[in-house]
Amino acid sequence: MKFQLTSLFLLISISTYGQNLHQHVNPMIGTGGHGHTYPGATVPFGMVQLSPDTRIDGSWDGCSGYHYDDNTIYGFSHTHLNGTGCTDYGDIMLMPTMGEPTLNPKEYSSTFSHAKEKATAGFYSVKLDKHNIDVALTSSTRVGFHQYTFNNSGKANIILDLNHRDKLLQGEVRIVNSKTIEILRRSEAWAKDQYVFARIEFSQPMQINKIRNNNAAQATSTDKLFTGTQLALSFSKSVSKGDKIWVKVALSPTGYEGAKLNMSEIPGWNFNKVKEDAEKLWDQQLAKIQITETNTDKLAIFYTALYHTMVQPNIAQDIDGKYRGRDNKIHKAEGFDYYSVFSLWDTFRGAHPLYTLIEKKRTTDFINTFLKQYEQGGRLPVWELASNETDCMIGYHSVSVMADAMAKGIKGFDYEKAFEAAKHSAMLDHLGLEAYKRQGFISMDDEHESVSKTVEYAYDDWCIAQMALILNKKDDYDYFMKRSQSWKNVFDWNTGFMRPKKNGGWDKPFDPREVNNNFTEGNSWHYSFFVPQDIPGMIEAYGGAEKFEAKLDKMFNSESKTTGREQVDVTGLIGQYAHGNEPSHHMTYLYNYIGKPEKTVKRINYILNEFYKNTPDGLIGNEDCGQMSAWYVLSSMGIYAVTPGKAGWSTTEPYFKTIKVQLNENKVDYIDKTRTGDYLQYFGLEEFQKKPHQDSWQPIIPVPVIEAKSKSFKEKIEISILYNKLDFLDDQKSLKAYYRMDNNKTFQLYEKPFIIDETSKIEAYLAPDFMATSDTISATFFKKPNNYSIDIKSKYNPQYHAGGAEGLLDGINGTTNWRKGDWQGYQGQDFEATVDLQSEKTITECNSTFLQDSRSWILMPTKVEYYVSTDNVNFTLARTIDNTLDPAETENTVTNFGVKLNSAIKAKYVKIKAYNYGKLPEWHQGAGGDAFIFIDEITIK
After folding, report:
1. Cα(365)–Cα(385) distance, rounded to whole angstroms?
2. pTM of the full predicted structure?
């Protein structure tokens, strides 16, 4: 009887919380600091995110359009991104004003106070100070609903500005009647070609009283069609004190008819009913996970986290199922719903595994969306936004989502088609994949962010292998399992870190704390533990459980400071662990794999308590489309998917006393903090407990390392071939290295270091006595074309050293991909260097090569001067070359500032001086910052 009463009390407690869960959501969490969330009105996975915009400058902390530190609102737009690190959206902006209208954002904007602002799930309100207007917002899935209360009498205006935030490629406003207009906004930002159609209905007739457009024909207020790449209008009506005007805005990705159809979601003008309907939707959605908790802050943190996992991906089809595909054509979804906004580099880790637990139907919708994008766009999504592939971030992590669903037995999509699409992504030749397939890793010479791409491709390949295993495709399984071990080719057994390679050897110098272009938003610490597909193999690589534990301890206990490039994403440091960015999210759970679960519990409790707060700056880093919050939701439940693609969870102590989880329409399960046993490992996956994950593979032989002092040399250079120890090979003596030079047909046994004195290509591989060889790697060493030396007066940024001073004279030219490390970078200073020709020579030509990538603050020098001298003291100006490339040009460009001298000049010294652009101009996103000069090769003839 006692147990029954306790259970009854528990059920009553839970059901009480379940009745009104939206009240616990605080959308202001993450709007401050670097959370990049928005506070506006939306419904679960809705197309509309109706929210205020306080930033229109493209700043990083303004990615969502709103930041809590601001006190000015420019308007209310209908699309927003949740916690991204890039700016986009802000479509169909409306702003109520009074008096004589203006179409200048600085003039129609208004100050506001947080004291008169309110945000809840499905609702937002604020008072605009300038004209004493109360704004209230709510929404349905595809329609935003505005309520404007004018507290003064006079002329009320509603500003529509299509140039808000993004670059307008095509704007169109059609006047249907005095209460209805239709809009096309085609824009460019992160998504290069985004289409948004809208239908706006006013509750009262409005008149056009101001126009801004750049159409050749002069627009008038009686026109029925307005077009241009500059387009804004003001709609006006006289109001008395206390009058209200309601506005409904329906969105569609397909066209005007789609927007008209979608408007049917909100019939009539009952604002409060729409608000209540939105709240009910959130109550139903949030009830999928119910916790027993009395602390109001913890309730707010948990349910806001759950809320943030449910505001994307976003439905991207009309009511009738029509959507705009990746081919920019209109299609109709049959048997599934089509979605957009897939931040897969972030969300494959926690958000999508959470969806497999409580959003199985949507999981199949997401995957069917992936497959349609593969069919219509040519490949699976990487970071898809509004039917555009942004190619932001790395990997092909949609395969992780698909493999995880298949491993958990989720049906509703074509497994064979999913495998076909996954294999297609893995077999492409872009983004370093050609080198990865050929030699088993990516080097700095092949592609930037080479270490991160190698280890993440390896994990994705393991996911594809698991799909092949399920589908009984043995050859594919074996092939991708081999590729899944590629992490071993960038793991240095001597230092215990994943390290970048350059020209066949380890890049030097190496600092595991350094954030640089060999890693994606991080450093070696952040990627040296990313082997989720083979954790036992990773532990062995570190020397066993004891040494692995010591390595984890060292990471958490090191100084909380990185070196190298300032990376705004690297936040929430505990030693070198960075909870503010996704690569670290699984690391606290790795203690479980060496029998130290108490350390997992300790670290996770610290993060739950310290890095998530019920405040605007309550997120330690970018929300990243729900991943930051998904970590909190899952970890507070006591589970996390360290290895998506494998059915089962890594577990820890639940944070709340009892948690009720709605697994599907007919099944509920409970997590109890006092419950013992290993039930959490397969929570929600009980039917798979009898199907443990089993696979096997042939261990690879990691590639050798070709070592030399430098990539170029003057007279001769010594070459060594080294290799890592192998965890599975007891007799290291049976391992032999073979090499050949300059495409010689025959490889020979390597016995000792050797000397080369000419430009040479060296290939090498390892072979034991009893199994397959390693992949073959190559390195090319260049004999310098002369014996010149250089004295650089300027100081290059350590991140961009190109191998030091001699790198400017080595005869090796950098490409437009400067992130590969072949360029020297100088910020906020002119470049000056003197080349010593070693003897007096007749000079006929001088060349120096520079690069521009304006988005990365790298601009051409304004001019380059060449001076000559015989004594290195007295210099004479030989020629000046002025820059002709527009600094606003965004395409990466390499330009040779070369001169042919009119008459031969005798000199022993040549001085090159390149003048820095200076401060970045106002139009630049980094306005006021110091520009870089990037220089590579100097040649003198």
Report:
1. 16
2. 0.93
